Each structure stands twice: as structure tokens, then as C-alpha cells.
Amino acid sequence: MTTKSFHPPQRTLMGPGPSDVNPRILEAMSRPTIGHLDPVFVAMMDEMKELLKYAFQTQNELTMPVSAPGSAGMETCFVNLVEPGDKVIVCQNGVFGGRMKENVERCGGTAVMVEDDWGKAVDPNKVEEALKANPDAKIVAFVHAETSTGAQSDAKTLTEIAHRHDCLTIVDAVTSLGGTPLRVDDWAIDAIYSGTQKCLSCTPGLSPVSFSERALEKIRKRSSKVQSWFLDLNLVMGYWGGAGKRAYHHTAPINALYGLHEALVILKEEGLENAWARHAKHHQALRAGLEAMGLNFVVHAEERLPQLNAVTIPEGVDDAAVRTTLLKDYSLEIGAGLGVMAGKVWRIGLMGHACNARNVYLCLGALDDVLGRVKAPVEHGVALAAAQQVLAG
């Protein structure tokens, strides 16, 4: 066997992530590698923390990227804040609420589940009832933007309810950061984590996190060691701490951090509210085209995440066959359903650099063609015009 260099095909990524990476970010990642304690790199780290504060809309001093994907950001929040015996209210309306439950239990905590139907936002009334029934609860954990369904929950209201019952909040913002309104300080969120491969249009492998002073106080008062050495914030902050001084903790993914820095610079150049508006506008165009074809959204409009669109697969259509044809003939990737929605929905992403008119038109035109070939019960030849009308307006 002859081993050769790997050269992947050029794809258009319109699934649930990763999203298309801005060429500026790929160029940034190709720059010379320097030491992770080099003064120049340390200065970039400080700048990145300020850029992340802007993205999260927070002044939290502990705002940084974890050197691992979004799942490690989730684990960072749970292993630092949940101690053995702690009771945690966990909201589940999709796959990722279930992963929160796993984290609580692995930390030795007790998860009290608040369950909503997949495709619906978390019901604040159910959370209130769970907190009244469990006055000893310490934390409320929920997913702001549920990637498995495209549902967006009311983070501000859920956090207010948690605080009324003297609970901290842990929030999953993996799919919302940079794509939909998220205001950590205004909403008083205590611990939040995200990923780089969604609306920031960076490569996978880093997880931005932010912790409030309330959360840090709980960490300082722990009666037991954080169960993960690598994710223990007491140790990590020796490396990501302030005043330009850095103690060695781990070798940071230097070139990946160049990429995240560039992604955040791009976000700052566009303006956060402009980025939110761009995602909303192109979602409306995609929505118009999909609905003109006769495809139905899983999530009600008022709870729908603009950057992740879950649509029902038409009756009699082979899910995998359509996605395979899109990939083969159009080099276009859309996502399959997860969990109870497997085989029932497609998840179409409009995230970050991939959120543009060209991709809206490509997706609608390709779906129209492929669904026509399999004689799916949809309206043909109408999707592009419907989307164009929205974008022109």
C-alpha cells in the first residue's frame, strides 16, 4: 500500500456542524507555530479573551477557550460546578439535555429531569414546578439552542427562575454563539459553553466557556477536588489567567487558537447584531423556499433556531439515499436526524460563513432536483423564486 497525502474534496457544509470555514481562518491556521508560552502568543491569548467576552456579551473575567471540542466545554462546566450529592435540575428537549444528565451522574450528582417533547422549547412552568418540588437543588442546566431539533429556549426566563430559587445555571450555547441573540451578562447566566465549528465558522476542536463570579464562588468553596485534572479550572486558570503571567498547564493547540482568534476578529468586524440579523434573514429565505416546496418545519416559528432548520422528510422518501445523492452530485452536506428523530427529519444548517444567499439557492435547487428524481410529493420549480422574493425584499 502506497500512502499519499490526504486531499479532501471541497464540500458545502449545511448540516448541524461543522460549518464552512472562512478561508481567512484556514490561512490564519497555516501561520508559523510558536511556543505556547511565547510572549507574543500570550498577548494574543489576552486579546482572544476580550474578543470572546464580546461574542458572549459578558465582562466575566473567566472567559476563555477550552483546548478541546464543545463536549469538553460541557464537561468543564459540570465537573467544576457539580459535587457529589448535588441535586441538579436538567432540562431535556433533545439529545444534548441527555448528555447533561450523563455529566451530572458521572460527577456524583443527582439529575432531576424536566422533559419536553423534542422540537419544543423548554417549558419555564415545568422548571418552576421542579424547583418548588426540589428546594435543595443547586443548579439548573438547559440547552439554549438544541442542535438535534432546531429548538431555541428562553435562556433569560429560565435563568431568572433558577436564580429565584437560589440556583446557578449551566447553559449549552454550542449552536447559538454568534448566530442568534445571546447576552450572558444581561441574562445573568452563570456558566456557559459553546463550540467553534458552528456559527463562528472555525474548525472543530475548541470550546469557548464563560463563568460568572457566582459560579467561581461555588468552585472556590468545593469540599472535594474537581474530578478531572485536565478540566480543573483552578489549574487551567494558571495558564489562562490575567496580568500576562502564565504557568504551564498543557500545551495549547496553538494553530487552532490562531484560527479562533481570526474567527472572532471576523465576528467583531461584521458586528454581533449584524451577524444575528444575517442569520435571521437567510433563515427566512430558506424557510420560504422549503415551505413553498411543501416541506414542514418540526419547530414552531416562535421557538425556531434560525441557523439550524429541522424539516420533516416527505413520506416515502429514503433519508440516506437523498443525503448521499446530494453529497455525490452537489458536494452538499445536510444532516440526518438524531435519536427519536432519526430517519424522520433533515437538519439543514445556515451557520456562520455558510449563511449566505449562494448556499440558500444551492440547497433549495439541489433538493428540488433530487426530490424530483425520487418522485417525492413536493412542489417543484417554486423554491428558488420564493427565497429570492425574501432576499430581494
Could you characterize what this model shows?
With 393 residues, this protein is α/β, with parallel strands linked by helices. It has 2 domains: 23-268, 3-Layer(aba) Sandwich (Aspartate Aminotransferase, domain 2); 272-392, Aspartate Aminotransferase, domain 1, CATH 3.90.1150. The protein is 41% helix and 14% strand. It is built from 13 helices and 14 strands. The strands form 4 sheets. It has a 7-stranded mixed sheet with strand order 2-10-9-8-5-3-4, sandwiched between helices. Helix 1 packs antiparallel against helix 9 and helix 11 packs across helix 12 (357-373). It is globular and about 65 Å long.
* Cα gyration radius (Å): 21 Å
Q: What's the CATH class of the largest domain, please?
A: Alpha Beta
Order of the strands making up the biggest sheet = 2-10-9-8-5-3-4
Question: What's the average pLDDT?
Answer: 96
Query: What are the segments in which pLDDT stays under 50 over at least 5 consecutive residues?
Result: none
Assembly state of the chains shown? single chain
Modified residues (N6-(pyridoxal phosphate)lysine): 198
Protein name: Alanine--glyoxylate aminotransferase
Region (Disordered): 1-20
Keywords: Aminotransferase, Pyridoxal phosphate, Transferase
